[in-house]
Amino acid sequence: MLRMSSLVLALGFVVCAAPKDDARSTAAAETSNKVTLAVEQVASGLDQPVHLTAPASDPRLFIVEQPGRIRVVENGSLLDKPFLDIVGKVRYGGEQGFLSVAFHPQFRSNGFLYVNYTDKNGDTRIERYTVSADKNVADPRSAKLILGVDQRYSNHQGGLNLFGPDGMLYIGMGDGGSQGDPHGNGQNRNALLGKLLRLNVDRGDPYLVPAGNPYAKGGGRGEIWAIGLRNPWRFAFDRFSGLLYIADVGGDRFEEVDVVPMSVAGVNYGWSVMEGPSCNRFSGCGQAGLQKPALSYATHQNSTCAIIGGFPYHGQKIPEIKGQYFYSDYCNSWVRSFGFADGRVTDQHEWPVGRLGSITSFGEDSQGELYITTSSGRVYRIIKTPGNPAR
Length: 391
Fold this sequence. Notes:
Blueprint: E1 8-10, E2 13-15, E3 28-30, E4 36-43, E5 49-53, E6 61-65, E7 69-74, E8 77-78, E9 84-85, E10 98-103, H1 107-110, E11 112-118, E12 124-131, E13 138-149, E14 161-163, E15 169-173, E16 195-199, E17 224-227, E18 234-238, E19 243-248, E20 254-261, E21 274-275, E22 278-279, E23 295-298, E24 307-312, E25 325-329, E26 335-341, E27 344-350, E28 359-364, E29 370-374, E30 379-384
Antiparallel strand pairs: 1-2, 3-4, 4-30, 5-6, 6-7, 7-8, 7-9, 10-11, 11-12, 12-13, 14-15, 15-16, 16-17, 18-19, 19-20, 20-23, 21-22, 24-25, 25-26, 26-27, 28-29, 29-30
């Protein structure tokens, strides 16, 4: 599936040949700011891990396996018993499956978690579960449907649930699949597909549309926060800078990262009028009112195929990379980062951290440290190289 390429130069970075899987648990990299990074393996033997997260102030790691489980790493060990097992409810394969979990900001007191998965009919379901008396096991009988979204096709599912700094639950929805957005979902304000949704799950049953949503009073579905997305597999909030990062998987032309203030409602990211920085179907398309990406790169060039969005780093262990937004590509699996200041990308780096295999997602623990999940079943933590040597 992967297309290999020799050493090439792209976007000002030296891009290594597409990596193969490697069992090495630590590999180092260095950039111009003299900090050296590495990765260390924290778990292995997982079944298609695609998401990693942690509740606030909780030292455990929770890892989503695409076939339908959540696994727990506690005190450095992967527990045998799943935290949640809904394999019997999940349609798994390709872009479908159990795609993410978001723990309520008050999880310690209410025990709520919100999952995003593809059901046996191929539709998206957002459900709430509650932890049981055993802190390492959720109660499978506690399932409550929050939102269901019909899907015609098996691709472009989106798939991320994430609570924002405002306490609202954000949900990334792809355009619904096939190719080229044949049903025009991206620009259809009455469709939930191709959107970023924003729900208040602390009020209403099962939720309340926040008054600040752009169509809360009409003109479109009230749940919508932003439109014009193709397949926002991963997005992230920077709680320090007030920015929202969306890594939107491209079609035949561009992969992109969009960066906007998180407080701005109703942003139109352009799909399917635009793909990346240019018109999609027709030259000279109307671009007024459309948000152009902060960063883009060519799809299917230099062994790339699908952007994998990460997080801005705000951990305590590597102060030299504070605020750097990390991302990757599923097929090439390089690890890159950039800063963002005064409305533009700055301080771009590539971190050749070794052969990790296909990167499926990034994760963040409760202390802001970053992790990488891979299709090989391994999970890595990004660390500073011991001694941090500089050339």
